[in-house]
Amino acid sequence: MAQQRMALWAAEADIDEDVDLHLAIGNYGQSGHFEDAQIQAPQIDEATILAMQQHMAQQAAFSQIPDVVKAFIVHFHQAVLDNNLAEITIAYESGWNKYTEKFYSKSEWPEAEVIAPLVNDDPIFLILYRELYYRHVYSRLQPNIDDRFHSYENSCELFNYLLNSEGPVQLELPEQWLWDIIDEFIYQFQVFCTWRSKVKSKTEDELMMLADGGPVWSSYSVLNVLYSLIQKSRINEHLIAQQEGKTPEEIAEIIGDYGQRPLYRNLGYFSLVGLLRVHVLLGDFTLALKVMENVELNQKSPFTRVTACHVATYYYVGFCYVMLRRYPDAIRTFVNVLNFIMRMRQYHTRSYQYDQISKTADRMYALFAVCNALSPSRLDDNVANISKERYGEQFAKMARGGEESLPAFEELFLYACPKFITANPPPYDDPAALSALVAPPSPIDSSAPPSPTDPTHRHLSLFLADVAAQAPVPTLRSFLRLYTSLGAAKLANFLDVDEEEIVQEMMLMKQASKSVSRVAGSERGSLLDGETITTSDLNFVIAENMVHITESTIGRRYAGWFIKNTERTARIYDDLKNMPLPQPAKNVATPSVVSPSADAPSKAPRTGGQKVAWGGAKVA
Amino acid sequence: MSSWISPSTRTELIEDLVSGVDRYNPSNVSILEDYLYHQIRSEEYDCLANLAILKLYQFNPELYNPDVVVNILIKALTACPLPDFNLCISLLDERPVNANLDEPDPLPTLLPTLKGLHDLLYRCRFPKFWEEYRSEELEALRDNYTVECVGFENAVREVAIRAVKAAFTEISLKRLGSYLDLTGAGLQAYIQKLGWTLDAASSTVSIPPNPDNQIVATVVQENISLPQLTKVISHAALKA
Predict the structure, then answer these.
(1) Closest CA in chain A for residue B25
(2) Which end of chain A is more exposed for a tag (fewer CB within 10 A), N or C?
(3) CA distance A462 to chain B (A)
């Protein structure tokens, strides 16, 4: 208020008021934001009006909130205050989604300021609430530039609170939520980068905001957050100590105060996976695998507790292997997780997560098809069958090789690859450079290829170049399979090419049948480790101009199959035996143990505990 | 593989940089660049350290030094068939026209050339590679870059040798010469250095046996061990 007066005396009213009236009436002791709705408008300056309007709007919005939602928020807040993990989990997982579906499926949740009175303006809870609020906006609605900037600020506040408070905070949150925080943070970063790089569709205001944007959603700040979480929780040291088998006391010493709290430990752990993801998005595949070097990729690892995290980890690790041309490793990774997903499918009732996991699974089937075409393996698996079901057409084209395979590879790669981003924004702070980017002034130099500003295409072209190089291999392979020894000239004749060309092609084929791979039994050791192994069952060598060919075959594997099924049926039988006898009326007491494997041979055992017929085994 | 991840020639200082958070610090780029020039001069190679340089360029476009990038790519060429070259390209973000370079950026013109050379090497088209490499168009590349890189041509020859070793037990002298871009006395000396033997009469070179060029038809048999059967047997025993 005082300022206002001074400005007036200085005749520099930034508010277009009627000066005379002001001088005449003066300032009737208006200090702060009075609720003086009765006083005539000219005496209240705009700032107060705005505040009052806002307050009234908030009141209105507040009253619009359904009572159940209000009660939910209060309950949620109480649970957070009490660190009641069970209650928080229920509220977070089912409560929030329930009310979203019911009331807010097409609109935003009430703003944090509106519900603030319900929670006594508790800043921590409001930060958490905003996190959920923006997550909802990003997933169901279209965030505008303000939303994006504000969600970044909110995330910064949250991480600031977690990292820069005096000592570890006493908050406890469910693991699922912690993973979602990291996941969402990276997701918002990713969509922001994609949105930011579309220069042409920006309005004036947006351009201005982006020019001043600076550190908002910059790669460095995102990486900073993830690395800080990792360092604070000393998660790497923790994992190493666990692997070395240190005692709990020693571990506690190593990881310090922060690492001992589950909140930090989980955040640190999920940040490792987060880093894996960010590095893949930025195109640095070796670094991505390197950050995961202390995480063991097996079913016993902590990250499997959160399914979404588990699936994401395997997806990104598998994709890194694909880009590193380590197809056997990629195949193994995908098979592992796809089997897991198939088994877990029946237990996943939370629909929104299920959709996302399904989508990732689908992409992995596509990548599996790609890898199988490039490096055929004899995994006659459920995974291979399902993959053939969905991508049979493309797989056939890819496996045949040659020119026609390239579009199929391209299609599947584009479908399955992550949404890559560029690290740097277009030069919003330099208008000249910006306009040069949008409309290149000089005619494009015809010798230089059009530079794709889209990182996805850059990676796609690298991948396709590799594939194109290997395109002749399947045809060659099919020819070589027919012979034990063959003259190079004859082979060249068949394929209608030069002999020298054929010889070079065969060197390439030899190269293609070797791959770096993690050797079985070396589960420890970083993901980048590996030895060169042969991946093809067809082997050949050239002696001057003669090609000698051998093929290795795999004997039929009866034992594993029989043992597996014997054990399974024994289990069923035992379960049955231990079950209480059914009512006489109900005849069929067969427990339906749903086994995902399509080749479950035995029909369910009849009641009375008779031995299972092995007749089903013929269905092989 | 472990020597690719962590070469013995890497110093501790570089190891800390590559494995830690300091790799993101822009002021460390000169350390890594010096290490690159050391690699160039002493015929060493450290892929991950070079990738670290490219990553710094990715985040800090003002550090971009096209000569460094070209040198990294040249070094990566010699690592074929490892995916190093592709990994480098993956990190080369599209950059807006950089107005503060003193000289025009050579990379946009050199990049397709280098990609072409890499393609030839990957596809084992060695005679064609040498032809391209020695051609007039690539004079700029040779005079400005590869001449600085000690042992570049020998390193490329090693790429060819790797491929030949895997696929051949015997190869004609002429063919080998075309892959290595060597003839006569030079070729003979090189073969001797490799420890391969030359049969002067038929002018074929025989290649010593290695895991790749010894082929044996194998039948992979199933191996059942007793522990695997314990559950089945014990269950049957219980039942009985």
Answers:
(1) A220
(2) C
(3) 6
**Residues across chain B:** 240
Q: By the 8 A CB rule, do B35 and B49 touch?
A: yes
**Candidate ranges A10-14, A295-299, A333-337, B218-222; pick with highest mean pLDDT:** A333-337
In angstroms, how far is CA B130 from the centroid of its own chain? Answer: 17
| Residue-by-residue DSSP string for A9-75 | HTT--SS---HHHHHHH---S--S----TTS-GGGS-HHHHHHHHHHHHHHHHHHHS-HHHHHHHHH
Amino acid at A258: Y
Chain A hits for B61, CB-CB cut-off 8 Å, are 424
Cis ω before B81 (30° cut-off from 0): yes
Residue A577, chain B, CB below 8 Å: the answer is no
Residue located via tokens 């709990």: A248
Whether this model's ipTM surpasses 0.90 comes out as no
Mutate to test the interface with A, among B87, B165, B174 (most CBs of A within 10 A): B87
- How do beta strands B168-172 and A546-551 pair? unpaired
Determine the Cα–Cα distance for residues B240 and B238; give it in Å rounded to an integer. 5
SS3 B78: coil
Report CA torsion sign: B22, B28, B33, B35.
negative
**Could you give the CA distance from residue A36 to residue A34 in angstroms, rounded to a whole number?**
5
Q: Which of A448, A426, A458, A438 has its CA nearest to residue B108?
A: A448
Average pLDDT over residues A333-356: 77
DSSP states of A82-108:
HT-HHHHHHIIIIIHHHHHHHH-SSSP
- What are the residues facing B204 on neighbouring strands? B172, B199
Q: What is the CA radius of gyration of chain A?
A: 32
Q: How confident is the model at residue B102 (pLDDT cuts 50, 70, 90)?
A: low
Interatomic CA distance for residues A301 and A524, integer angstroms: 12
pTM: 0.80
DSSP at A548: E
Question: From the candidates B47, B57, B58, which should be mutated to test the interface with A, based on the most A CB atoms within 10 A?
Answer: B58
The interaxial angle of helices A473-480 and A488-495, nearest 10 deg, is 130
Pairing type for strands A553-554 and A546-551 reads unpaired
Per-residue pLDDT band for A445 (boundaries 50, 70, 90) equals: very low
Round the average pLDDT of chain B to a whole number and report it: 82
d(CA A4, CA A93): 50
Of all residues in chain B, the one with the smallest CA distance to A230 is B21
CA A422 to the chain's CA centroid = 17
Q: Which of B95, B168, B221 sits opposite A542 (nearest CB)?
A: B168
With both helix axes pointing from N to C terminus, report the angle between A175-196 and A123-140 in degrees, rounded to the nearest 10: 50
User: Residue A315 above 90 pLDDT?
Assistant: yes
Distances (CA, A) of A124 to A127, A129, A292, B24: 5, 9, 31, 31
Give the tokens for residue A130.
């905003």
The secondary structure of chain B in percent helix, strand, coil, rounded to multiples of 5, reads: 60, 5, 30
Residue numbers in B near A556 (CB within 8 A)? 222
Nearest to A368 by CA among A358, A355, A356, A381: A381
What region, left, alpha or beta, does residue B170 occupy, with left being phi > 0 and alpha being psi -120 to 50 degrees? beta
Closest partner residue to B81 (CB to CB) among A220, A511, A559 is: A511
pLDDT digits (tens, 9 = 90+) for A45-66: 777 777 777 777 777 777 778 8
Largest CA distance in chain A: 111
Are A563 and B232 in contact by the 8 Å Cβ rule? The answer is: yes
Torsion of CA A537, B207, B195, B184, to 10 degrees: -130
